[in-house]
Amino acid sequence: MSSDEEPNVFPVIPDRHDIPCPLCQRKTILHSKKRRRFRHGHAWNVGVLWIELDVPRQRCTSCDLTFVYDYGLGLVRTSTEVFRKGIAKRCHGRTISDVAREYGLPYTTVERWFYQYASVETMERATQVLVDEFATRKGHHYATIVLDAKSGQLLSIVPGRDVAAITAALQGISGDIRSVVSDFAPAMAKAINHVFPEAEHVLDRFHLVQFVTDALRRRRRFLNEARRHHHVRVIDRSLARRPETLTGEDREVVRSCIQEDPFIRNLYQGLQHIRYVLKATCEIQAQRRLSDWLDRYQFHPCGPLAKIAKAIRVREQAMRQTIVSRLSNGKMEGTNNKIKLIKRRGYGYRNLERFFLRLRLEIGRQNSNHELW
């Protein structure tokens, strides 16, 4: 029990027992002891909870070794291992500076405890996964990340974005994998077919539509923007949005762009046609619509459409599975934005292992609430 003068300090009297030598396991004798206090917990309206006990310094009678005995509490300076692990747990989902400020601890101390005791909790089994790449240093270094499609929790992360890195990332997960969602990168398809040959390879719809919208944007920049009567962003937004969501002014912008340039007209028609293909509800309908789209645009005089059709022809089986499947890469795109925020919040990470550890602790955690401890 604590005293009335110091309600947050609890004296501890350990039981008497023999302390063996850590080297030879022989009998030791008490060399000296000192009364010390250690942080052991935290409570609201009270603050830090301290324990006070006599820390013995033992000497071995056989090998003459002198050591400090910590009763298995992990005593280091002024804290126990329970307190350090609790502080590391409080850093989940929060910045280290906020935790250090809340508990009145140095930032470097909390940072050291976090990277020392932070546990890596990953799901052992999954059935549907998302695979993508992100930049650890934009334009220089990249990494491959695998998420669970249902919960969004990080399953595996590996530096690099080549076939070997993607293969290593996929091999790091376990379970009966039935579906894998990725972009149109050839390295992704090769690694997925090698690791999970029986799984369905689903391509991301967003990247497919983005191919055409990017071609529209490049064509618009190729034309002389000074002759246009509308703002550049208005033109890009009007050409990229679905026709049924356009306002009267936006429809007029699209009509003027289509009448001005046949190249833009072909791209816009191809974009609406691919959206019609993606609305198929069964395999037979998806196969028929996709075949019609490929027959129309595979040898089209519009270069970007012919290039996109060629990329789809190579992945025709995966494309049919994409049309029927309801899976998407939406959670992965949101995760990429969160990774950018984590990098910006930490002003970059020089240590890649600590950066990956931080991502494991931040991304897709199911228990985000922090209870009192």
Automatic annotation (TrEMBL):
Residues 80-118 form the Transposase IS204/IS1001/IS1096/IS1165 helix-turn-helix domain. Pfam families: DDE_Tnp_ISL3, HTH_Tnp_ISL3. Residues 131-359 form the Transposase IS204/IS1001/IS1096/IS1165 DDE domain. This is ISL3 family transposase. It comes from the Bacteria. InterPro entries: Transpos_ISL3 (IPR047951), Transposase_DDE (IPR002560), Transposase_HTH (IPR032877).
